[in-house]
Amino acid sequence: MKIAVIGSGYVGLVTGTCLAEVGHTVVCVDLDEHKIKMLRDAKSPIYEPGLEALIRQNVGHNRLSFTTILEDALKGAEVAFIAVGTPEGEDGSADLRFVRAVAKSIGEVCSGNLLTIVKSTVPVGTCDLVDNIIVETLKSRNAKHRVTVGSNPEFLKEGAAINDFLHPERIVAGVTNEQDADTLRELYTVFVIDDPSKLFIVDRRSSELIKYGSNSMLATRISFMNELARLCEKVGADIDSVRRGMGSDSRIGRKFLWAGPGYGGSCFPKDVAALIQTGDQYGVSMDILKSVTTANETQKKHSALKIINHFGGKLTGKTVAIWGLTFKPGTDDVRDSPALTIINMLLDTGAKVMAHDPQGQANFSREIGSKKNLSYVDAAYDAVQNADALVLITEWAEYKRPNFDRIGNLMRTKNIFDLRNQWSFSSTKKIGFHYECIGRNDDKILPMTNLK
Ligand SMILES: NC(=O)c1ccc[n+]([C@@H]2O[C@H](COP(=O)([O-])OP(=O)(O)OC[C@H]3O[C@@H](n4cnc5c(N)ncnc54)[C@H](O)[C@@H]3O)[C@@H](O)[C@H]2O)c1
User: What CATH number does the domain containing 358 carry?
Assistant: First the structure.
């Protein structure tokens, strides 16, 4: 099949590359000339494990190419994916500017029948909107092509995106007619050959809502566990034990129960906000999600306050080493990373911050902007040199088992704030560290008088 993918970011690029990998001829489009130039040289503009090798391979086999010109990409294409960004607008709703623009361009330049698939995460009803824009634009130039619109939200996880796309747990598609359903089956059955029932074909509105429902449910689990972790800190319980005990119940399951510094990334915060907005728009107040958002903001601040309070509320003259800036390991994506809130709070209370991240430093420095007291180092251990505190924000593999003796020798004062619960009281305390984490206590049993 000849396929166009419009928007060559984290989702579009992985989609296009994986579809080429199974034999389709794919043209990826982007407005960003620098991105397209890099891609034409078979270089990935984003960090995603395995992606660059797969791009190189498929470019080499002439199945994958790149352009800034939509008209060229649509020539002879049977299917076009829309995979542009849908960032959070000022009121929390999804900003559909890029989706609308692409729909209009498709109507203006498409030269044959086409199934347009909206892969971007979009609020309920957006496929209807895209449909209308394309139909009206075609009409205005008297074009008679049959252009239909389907929904196909993406569920890949950055850091594991290739595997998620090639071996999905499920694929969701929303269509309005049987012909489009058949095209989607033809496109996707290859990825669910082990169990074709993993491909759900539903109506467009349900498909759109499945994506928001899924991300909001996951964000809810995280916020709930973070709230429980804050309670654990007060009552002397251990969030890891609580997590294991809860997760053993098959009705609850073990995934997405990790306490940490709050969720972030390019999806959860904006998707929760957009679902709240959709609810408001239709008169259904999404009260649970409103609390989820508040709890997440509280958790980010709570994490920063652990450090600030330890030093008596002021960090003037203190140097804080940060390990990890991205919202999770395995990506260079820093959009809405908890590190942004935490580092800003540390800087605002007078700290000097030395930051390290294996992949995210360039994006982070662009996102947070230039800050007088924030600098970056290329090696993790350089960050802790003469530091008064080490804060672990993202659990990259290289941070998981550090040499605490070496860290202790390099630091000015030995304080560790482990916001991902990767280390233990025992391994850090024996070297003389003050150690704090999220929702775990140092084996101390609270006196009975505290237990009312
Ligand atoms: N990143 C993820 O992990 C993830 C996962 C699932 C779903 N999504 C959803 O997928 C969508 C895309 O997310 P992303 O992270 O890939 O975004 P991104 O910002 O990485 O990529 C979007 C790309 O679209 C390009 N673009 C914008 N307007 C264009 C136009 N008119 N023509 C051609 N290209 C254009 C931009 O230049 C950019 O390269 C969003 O709706 C997001 O919510 C993202």
Answer: 3.40.50.720
Give the pocket of ligand 1 (CB within 6 Å): 6-12, 29-32, 35, 83-86, 98, 101-102, 120-121, 154, 156, 158, 266-267
pLDDT tier, 448 (very low <50, low <70, confident <90, very high otherwise): low
Residues 198, 219, single domain; the answer is no
Copy the structure tokens of residue 108.
């203006």
3-state helix, strand, coil split of the chain in percent (to 5) is 45, 15, 40
Distance separating alpha carbons of residues 350 and 118, to the nearest angstrom: 46
Into how many domains does the chain fold?
2
Ligand 1 centroid–CA 245 distance in Å is 38
User: Is residue 330, in this structure, part of any structural domain at all?
Assistant: yes
> Among 69, 58, 81, which residue's Cα sits nearest to residue 6?
81
The span from the CA of 358 to the CA of 63, in Å, is 32
Å from CA of 179 to ligand 1 middle: 27
Do 192 and 53 have their domain in common? yes
- The SS3 call for residue 150 is strand
Instruction: Specify the ligand 1 atom closest to the Cα of 94.
Output: 41
Buried b (16+ CB within 10 A) or exposed e, 321-347: bbbbbbbbbbbbbbbbbbbbbbbbbbb
Indicate whether 271 belongs to any domain: yes
Q: What angle do CA 162, 163, 165 make, to 5 degrees?
A: 65
Q: Which residues are catalytic?
A: 267
- Say yes or no: 243 and 167 in one domain: no
**158 CA: nearest ligand 1 atom:** 3
Q: Average model confidence (pLDDT) for the chain?
A: 96
pLDDT digits (tens, 9 = 90+) for 307-329: 999 999 999 999 999 999 999 99
Same-domain status, 270 and 418 = yes
Cβ-based neighbour number of residue 267 at 10 Å: 26
Burial classification of residue 62, based on how many CB atoms lie within 10 Å of its CB (0-12 exposed, 13-18 middle, 19 or more buried) = exposed
Q: How far is CA 315 from CA 310, 318, 323, 414, in A?
A: 10, 5, 18, 15
pLDDT tier for residue 77 given thresholds of 50, 70 and 90:
very high
Q: Based on the domain organization, do 78 and 153 belong to the same domain?
A: yes
Tell me the CA–centroid distance for residue 86 and ligand 1, in Å: 7
Nearest CA among 444, 84, 92 for reference residue 435: 444
Query: 370: domain range?
Result: 215-436
Name beta bridge partners: 207.
Answer: none
Its pTM stands at 0.95
What residues contact 164, with CB distance under 8 A and at least 6 apart?
Answer: 155, 156, 157
